[in-house]
Amino acid sequence: MTEGYNFAYLDEQTKRMIRRALLKAVAIPGHQVPFGSREMPLPYGWGTGGIQVTASVLGPDDVLKVIDQGADDTTNAVSIRRFFAKTAGVATTTHTAEATVIQTRHRIPEKALRDDQIIVYQVPQPEPLFRLESSRVETRRMHGLADYGLMHVKLYEDVARFGQISIAYDYPVMVNGRYLMSPSPIPAFDNPKMDRMPALQLFGAGREKRIYAIPPWTDVRSLDFDDHPFRAINALEPCGLCGATDAYLDEVVTDDKGGRLFVCSDTDHCAERRDAGHVGKDGVP
Amino acid sequence: MTAPLTAGFADPVLDSQRCFRSVLDGMARPGRIHTVSGVIPPAPLCSAAAAVLLTLADHETPLWAHADFAPARGWIAFHCGVPDAADPARAVFALSMGLPDLAGFNPGTHEAPETSATVIVQLPSLTGGAPLRLRGPGLRDSVLLAPIGLPADFVIVWRRNRGLFPAGIDLILCAGEELAALPRTVAIEEA
Lengths: 285, 191
Hints:
Helices cover 27% and strands 18% of the residues of chain A. Chain A has helices at residues 12-27, 48-57, 75-87, 136-145, 149-162, 191-194, 267-275; strands at 33-34, 63-68, 91-92, 101-105, 118-122, 173-175, 179-181, 200-205, 210-214, 220-222, 249-253, 260-264. The model of chain A has no long low-confidence stretch (mean pLDDT 95). The termini of chain A are far apart. The longest helix of chain A is centred in the first third of the chain and has 16 residues, at 12-27. In chain A, the strands form three sheets. Chain A has a seven-stranded mixed beta sheet with strand order 1-9-8-5-4-2-3. Chain A has a three-stranded antiparallel beta sheet with strand order 7-6-10. A two-stranded antiparallel ribbon of chain A has the order 11-12. Chain B is of the alpha/beta class. Chain B has one domain (12-190): Bacterial phosphonate metabolism protein PhnH (Rossmann fold), CATH 3.40.50. Chain B has four helices and nine strands; from the N terminus they run αβαβαββββαβββ. Chain B has helices at 12-28, 47-56, 70-80, 154-162; strands spanning 34-35, 63-65, 93-97, 118-122, 132-135, 143-145, 170-175, 178-182, 187-190. The chains are: A alpha/beta, B alpha/beta.
């Protein structure tokens, strides 16, 4: 652990402020709690909200996993993992099952999370109504009154224009039947995992200075219509490396002749399946 | 003559982290009892309530404390640096022996429900009382909590508080070294 920093980088006064915000966020599922977001040693947009939440939650006995688009080995994930290994001296892992705290950008792991785990989402834009109503004063009033007609109109216009709801990621959800919430830019494929998840879900938006949360076992419903029910969209092929048919896939262009490969976005899930002997059509046994 | 001041957390950074995780888990799973030890506050303040204050209260959070806690006021002021909230309506945290009149505290507004007060309720025990059945976010099924020292009409008082949602008061129940939380979302009935 690096000397000269407080445990987990943030000072205690900041942690107390964030911890108070987190407790209120848990008590009001889906409501965005403003907090005094600090300047972090990396720019806004690189997960400063998630990092501040993780720093306020993390203890020396925690095991931290960080993923970026499902992958443990991308720049953002590697540098955040290293940041906490350095400033908090915590153990890190890439295995979902071994982690007690998982910080994520844009995915929920394929492996079902447990009651003793906490998942921390990095959120760029916490306001689900942002594209429909740019005034914060207005959106706060709309949340206060649970006036979400505007979002239903948007979804209806999608259906009228495209024949379906055309939101592939950051698909809005209703939390505990009260608050409209942005699930952060996870694919709509991951939305059903949020519903009655045994793990505590925390969300941190650094630039927008908002924290929100979903307690365990809380109802999270993706908005839809009776005649246009919510559908999770995914590639039609199985994973090229491990053959998984139930995991979210990334499309990778492999050459300039139209060649492509579909692979699991969750690298830990894919590696675990391959270790267990599953081989996809492009994989090597 | 005042008694010498006892210490707060032995390790302020890691002890408050540990205590916070207990409160966070308690708030996320209403009724689950956590043990926080290591603080020896002056009577009548119990160690769980003291640990919660050390973890969460500071100069930004005016505290309203029941008159019974007068002997501990100096200790709280020294370790947390909290300002006094003479008017309960201005308190961010409240410290009460048994359930106070919740109507006196700030429940927040529909637009800013997070500004509501958190009331730390010190009780004789969190177990062995008349069982209450809890349901709501955080709970897969219903769970039972049987604290001693809540008023007989607590279920009715709580129903009124819950009816304010998304505004409302959140409670942290403390007894000895044990704590459990009741966020405003939890539905409570006599079991």
